[in-house]
Every structure is written in C-alpha cells, then in structure tokens.
C-alpha cells in the first residue's frame, strides 16, 4: 500500500477498454509509481515524489489513449480524522443556493478542502481545515441560523466520517471496505460490484443467475402483478428485489420482500406453454392464441444457453403455478381496474319514477344551496360567507352526481388493466426512462402511439387550419420571464409546498391541511367547536397566505403523512419549469405552460399578414410543460404534453360568426352553470337555441363549440360519452366572459379534453401595458368623426439636461398620461409652476412649465382603434388520445382474450395490412406489387409474411387498430388476379380485383366511401384452405 507521504493523481476520461499496462508505463517515465489503479473509466496513480507528479500532470493532461484525451490532475484531498479537518453538515438550503456561496461563508474560518451541495435534497457538506488556534465550534455557532436566500441555515458537525484517501488510517486495512488482509485493488468488493452482487459479499459467494429475457419475463411476471402498471413505486423495488434474490429450486426458502405483502399466487400456465409451435395448420380454437417461445430443437448443444436456462426455469415455474392454482383457483379476479362500470351519462333523464323519487330531495338540496349562493353574491355578503356556501354547494353536487351515476343504467363494463396491458405490449406508449425506474408523469410514444398522434394532429390541421383558413405559427418553447409575468403565470401559477425534512418528500400544503383537518374532525373525541373550526379553515384555504397556512400547521402540529417526520416551513412552488437562458444565467426563463402566449406576442405581425383585417384566427401545435405535483392517471395528468390551440381575434362589439348558420341546428349536450347550481341534469339542445337564449355568450363561441364536437366525433370519441360543461362563477377566470369544457366520460369519470373560452381582451391588454407597444387593430368607421385631443408634449432637451438618464422614462410616462391626469397637471403648473411626477413607488421628480407643455387640438378620425377580444379553443391532445383509446377498446363476442381498438381509419396508426396466406414463393411478386401501389397513393401499411396462421395475424393487426387487411391467397395467382379485403370491426371480407385494391383502400382510409359501399359493390369472399 502507498505510504503516507505519497502524492496522488486522478486520471479521467479513460476508454472502457483501456488496461493498466496501457497507461502505467506513461507515468513511470516521470518518476517512481507507488500504486496504480484503474476503476472503470477513471483511475488513480500514486507518485513517491511530488515534483514527479507535477511533471506528469503538465505533460500527460490531454494525452490521447485509445482515441480519448485523458484528464490528469491532482486528486482532491481527503484528510484523516486525526488531522485538523472537520466535516460539517449544512442543511435547509434553498434551491437557489449555489456551492460558491456556501464555500465563501466557510472560507473566513479556514481552508475549505471540499464543498458539495446536493441540489435535489437542499443540503450539503463542507470539509473545513482550521488552524491550531481556531475552534471549529465557533464557526458552527456563528453560521448556524444565518439566513441565506430567505431560509435559516442548519449547520452542525456531520455524523459521517471524513472520507479517507488510500494510505490513510490503519496501514494494515483496505481503504475500500476497512477490512484487513488484502490490498485495495484485491478487495472482494470490486469483484462483487462488477458481478452485480452486494457490496461486502466475499469472492466465491453465490451470484444469482441472470433474469430471463424480456419477452418471457414480461409474460411470467408482469402479467401476474396486482397493480396498475402506470402507478408503481414499491412494485418496481419488489421487481428488483425478486431479480436479485430468486427462489433457488426445490427445498430452498424464498427470501421475503421486506416492505410489501406477498404477491397473490399467479394464474395457470395454459396460455404460456413451453412446447414449440405446431407445424400443422392450427384449429379454429387455437388460431388466435399467442405464439410460444422457441422449441427444444433450438437449444441443442452442451453448456449454458439461454434456451436451457428458460427450459429449467419453466419447469420450476410450472410446478409452482400448479400448486398456486390449487391454493387459489380464483386468482386474478380481484386485480384493480378489472371491472369498471361506466354508466350512461346523466343527461339521459331519469324517467323511472322510482329513480326520480330517490333523486328529488337531493336535487332540491342542491337548488336551495345554489339559490343561497346567488343571494349572498347579490347582497354583497362577506367573502368568507360566500366561500362557505360555495363549498357546501360543491359537496351537495358531488352527492347528487354520485347518486345519479349509481342509479344510471350501465353502459358497459370496462377492463382498464387489460387495455393498458395491450397498450404496453404493443408499445403505443410507455413510461419514459423505464429501464431506470421511470419518471412519473412522463411518457414515450412508441411506433403505434406516435403514428396515432401524428394522424390526429394531421386531421386537426385539416379540420381547423385548412377549413377555417387559419394562420399557423410555431413559437419558441423557451419563454423569457417578463412575458409570463405580464400574462400572470409567474404570480398566479404557483402552489404552496412543504417538505419532509428527512426524506425530502414534497406535499402540496392546501391538500395536506385539508386531509389533516378532515382526519381531526372525524375523530370521535373531537368537540363540536373543533369540528366547526376545521370546517371554517377548509372553506378559507383558497384565499389563505403562506403565513396563515404556516400558523395552521404549527397549531395542529402537522407531520409528514407518510413518515411522521417534521415538515419544513411553507414555500412557494411554481408549476412552471424554470431555467436560465444563456451562459451567464442572468436571463431567467421558463418552459412555456401553454402555447397561447407565443401567438399573443406576435399579434401585430399576424395582423399585418392578414392585411389589418378582423376577424382572423391563429393556430399553434406544440409541447407545453407543467411541473405537476402529483401527476397521475396515465396521459390525463402529465408534466409534458402536446397542445393544439386556436386564438380567434374579433371585434369585441361584434362577435357574430359568418358560418354560424351552418351549425345552428347541430345538437349538443350542454351542462350549464345554472343546471349545476339547481341540481338539474345536462340538456340536449341545438347550439342555435343555446346562443339565442344567451346560455352560450355569442355566436363565435357557439360556432367553435360545435366544431369541437364535430372534430372529436370524427376522430372516434363516442357522442353518447361527450358533453360540454360550463364553468361556474367560482371556476371562471376574472377576465373571461364565458367558458365551456368538452368533457369525455372515461373509467376515471368525466375528464376535460378541450377548453373553449371567451378571454375578452385580457392578454393583448396585459402585453400592451408591459411593453408599451399597442397590440390593437383599426376598425373603419361608417362616417368620419371629429375628436378633441389633449396631449402632454415633453421638451426633451430641457429634460435631458435636468434629469440625465431618467429623462427618457419621464418622457415616456408623460406620453401615457390620461386626459384627466394631463388636465390636473396643467392646472398645477399654472398655479405653482411645478408638478410632482411619480416615476415609480420610490422615485418622484418635480417638473416645471419649461419641461412640458399641454397641447389641445381636434382631429378627424376615419378609423377607430380597438383591442380585439379572443375566443380560444384549447385541445389537450394526450387527453383526447386516452379517451379515444378507452372509448374504442373492444373485445370479440365470446372471446375476451381477443382485444382490439376500433379506431376510425382517419386516425388509425396504419391504414392497411398485407397478408399472404402462406409462405408460398409465388405470392412474393404480388406482395411487392400491392405494397408499391399502396405507397404510391399514400396509404401507410404493414406487410406481415410471418409463419403464423392467417387468423392469428388478423388478430395481431386488429390489436394495433389496422382497419383493413389485404389477403393474398391462391385465387390471386389465377387470371384475373384478385385479393380479399377484410374489415376489422365486422370481420367481413370481399373479393376485389388486384388493380383496384389500392384506390379502394385509399378511399376507405380517408372516408371518401364507407365499408357498406364496398360490400354492395364487390362479391363476398368464400373461405379457402391455406394449402392447395
């Protein structure tokens, strides 16, 4: 081992194939090398002489070995415990605190050898070396409690030891594991870490065999899990545990998982036979079973092979499964989300007298509370009373809606777990970075999901951008802070959070307080006074400040609901992802939370492009980002999502739409705010009636609501599970005139998929005020009119001499004064010859008559300047996709193992499949001819010439939603050449000439004709055998 006086260098950026013999001779040229270690792609070298080490650094840093320029530098010091070095823990840091700031605090007390801030956990460690005459406790006492970035630091001596470098401590012990009897480079820990075993297991200890390959492991393990695939945390840990500690054959004891209960026994292996596939043509009963793994003939030969491993593994699993089946014959029946009842919508009136008799008192209770809310608002009651009444109204509404849904006739029984299994297996989408454990609220789209999303966006462009002649833009995702400050996102797009001080787990504060107070008030020992206090606090939560919520936390001694650890002080958590733009970090920005702001800031350019005319609409498709505290429910609540937004700019006094007459008779399901407050159900009426009665605010809003419903139905949303719900008064933004959400009924309940709001002129006005650039349009007047103009004209020369750099700000402020302010200034100047002008809250300047003059004139106007109102339909593409997949997930009658997605052809990932009946070589020219013809007419397709039966291949294509299948059979070889065309949903087949098939499929794929037209024109197909 190296001596205590040796000098250590760090070697980095080594190629993974670099060996000790490749590098050590280079360093030995500069002096005596005491020890040399390579660890993965880096290593350490110990020189006996310090000057030799410095020569090596000067000459070898950047030297190229195996194509990599290596990094050679002095290794960072790790002092021994008996030196003057102390390791200090620094806690309660903010996310803004940087390493340099912490280092600077400690440097006044001694030499900081090392300073590490763990940003994601808000703490750090400092290795401080102090002089003999300095007491490190004095430094700790002075720094403990010091406020940095708004938080009091927690400084104390670290409970962990100072990290040692090789050669320190006991010369007989290994510095890697602390044991004696071996050198560090011979430490068993290295061998076990490379083998994937625990850190301190000795060489020769048992190393578990590798897990089975993914295709079999998924079938053995994932299918038997009793949890929702997209909501797993402990399950991932269990999976890792079971891979590391599997049962070791007959008689061995399985190591119990330390956290969770045992898994339920798995199902029988009837669908997972290990026999090789039959060479005979399958029977009709076997035609749609999944293919088995490779047969015994593929694993011949001695020694270890993956086939032999699977064979032995399958024997062990089969035996275990048979025993489990005897113990629990009903395995899998209690798996979550297996049998979700989706009721008919409540807009189907409860015509059953018995049902109405049950619901009548609940409706009356909601109506009474709704009337009370209206009365309180009319009378100008205190805000607390209104909030309390609204909270009670929401509670009564929830009881009524739950009762309605429970009494409604069942529309279907839905197996969400089976659908999500299909989506995962066919890789429509899956959790991002799954091999690293996954990130909650982030998903990657696979080939089918990507194609589905692309087709949906293409249909959206056709339906809105092209048909409505909109102006499409593509704006930057990175948005500077001032833009979102003006829009209100910086100030209002935030929640209060608290952290578990030990684990770092975050909790949304209002949810935490509400849950805790509900638990307190439900306690049997709680007095009526305590219950009333808790109820009042919950009602006032929405308007509480950070200090008020913090006081409630302390009063009720709230702890972490998971660990019962202490919680931090409340802190603001902005739901936008913050970043710095540029290398200096001085320009703060965010990832955009919506695409709309990019359109608003470009309004002036868009208006010019449209030749200055209103109305016009701009559209944008792109990703937005929101740092959701608790993302859940698959694609419904995520952190990164695709939006398609429209901003329709129109005259605020003329919100008629020229094409409204085309949709006025279109029927829709509308759930108005009045009906919600009165306890009534949604209504079916035409959009023309809704606009006429002012249920919908104006024609433009009504027109877009109708178009939204048409689009959703076109892409496959079921109309009986679609409604529009109006925002109630307490939900609507203060600037909005009216707002409706298109909601789809899913197994999660009603979810908002599209919002359609009249945003008035709020956004353009905010950006005008922030920038001083008028975002307005000119409207031609029917007749010219004369107006009186009063303006303050600054004498820039005099202002410049008097106020220097502030002169421009004063001049700009004078230009923004209103007429009343100008007249008041003029009067003050006439009487006192001076006027105090407030530049901001801190600066006031005094101007005189020489610096400014007031001019009055008359002007004839031919145009009027107006700030347009905005009607905004906003589409959440991910939510629409999820609702679509759930609405269109089907199972064949009599065979619930045959699942498929009945997506409309316009959005289906692939439009057609090409399936030869067998591997007959005579079919090859026809496959090529058909594939080329489909490509020429822009029809996406998939050729499946695998050896499976035709029925099994039909099932595979149905599962990925391919609507049409072309089969090449032995009749295709005959003159005139023809093929069969199969439709997915009905499974009907017709015979079509070869030279017509591409045009027919294209017409079907783009809804030019319907399947019924094809069946009427071409003869039905009669089944034939696979061989002739």
UniProtKB/TrEMBL annotation:
Residue ranges constituting the RRM domain according to the UniProt record: 7-77, 86-160
All copies of domain Aminoacyl-transfer RNA synthetases class-II family profile, residue ranges: 548-916
Taxonomy, superkingdom: Eukaryota
Entry keyword Ligase: yes
Function: Catalyzes the ATP-dependent ligation of glycine to the 3'-end of its cognate tRNA, via the formation of an aminoacyl-adenylate intermediate (Gly-AMP). Also produces diadenosine tetraphosphate (Ap4A), a universal pleiotropic signaling molecule needed for cell regulation pathways, by direct condensation of 2 ATPs. Thereby, may play a special role in Ap4A homeostasis. Required for terminal arborization of both dendrites and axons during development.
Assembly with partners or alone: Homodimer.
Name by which UniProt lists this protein: Glycine--tRNA ligase
Organism field: Clunio marinus
Source organism phylogeny: Eukaryota, Metazoa, Ecdysozoa, Arthropoda, Hexapoda
